Amino acid sequence: MATPVKGMSSRAVQAERTRQQILETAQRLFTDLGYEATSLQMIADEMGLTKAAVYYHFRAKSEILHAALQPGVRRLEALLDEAVAIRGRRARTEFLVNAFVEFLVQNRPYTVLVGKEPASKMDAESVALRRRALTLLFGDNPTGAERLAFRASLLLPASLSELADLSDQELREALHTVAMHILRVPSR
């Protein structure tokens, strides 16, 4: 939750709290029901608000989704920033796969949500993030096979709901093994 700024009025603080509660409620409903199946009215009803109150904070459902995904996007950007300094394809790939796997494990509900949504919902920021990751993994001119492998690795979050029975460690190991195999990184 965002920290209220010193000097904010109590009304502004309450508005920020309500905005955060809308985000949390929407994220839970998006995860449970899917983005398309969740309406603004459902979010409002869940919170005991009017639909107009939700519209006051967010102009559209897509704006709620975008705001809910921002913390994850920022974390992934930071991981890519760290990966730039790593020399050697294998070391960089290991770092990125380990970081991506850890992100998926720590954020299962978030990643299930992202995995369920079609790529057509991606904004320019997400597209740029994916392009940057592809370049870090395979350079400026990835082959068709490398681009396909990268896209295939991005489908892993869509499988997380089917792996709910795995412990975090089992999920971590399975994701790491499959991602490294998809990205064609030979085992040591």
| Alpha carbon gyration radius | 19 Å
Structural class: mainly alpha
Count of DSSP strands: 0
Instruction: Please trace the helix and strand order, writing H or E for each element.
Output: HHHHHHHHH
State the end-to-end distance.
42 Å
Based on the model shown, name its key terms.
mainly alpha; Arc Repressor Mutant, subunit A; 188 residues; elongated
Detailed description of the structure:
- With 188 residues, the chain is mainly α.
- It has 2 domains: 10-59, Orthogonal Bundle (Arc Repressor Mutant, subunit A); 69-182.
- Helices cover 69% and strands 0% of the residues.
- It contains 9 helices and no strands.
- α4 runs antiparallel to α5 (89-106) and α5 packs antiparallel against α9 (168-182).
- It is elongated, with a radius of gyration of 19 Å.
In short:
With 188 residues, this protein is mainly α. It has nine helices and no strands. Helix 5 runs antiparallel to helix 9.
Show the helix and strand layout.
Blueprint: H1 10-33, H2 40-47, H3 51-57, H4 61-84, H5 89-106, H6 108-116, H7 124-138, H8 144-153, H9 168-182
Helix pairs in contact: 1-2, 1-4, 1-6, 2-3, 4-5, 4-7, 5-9
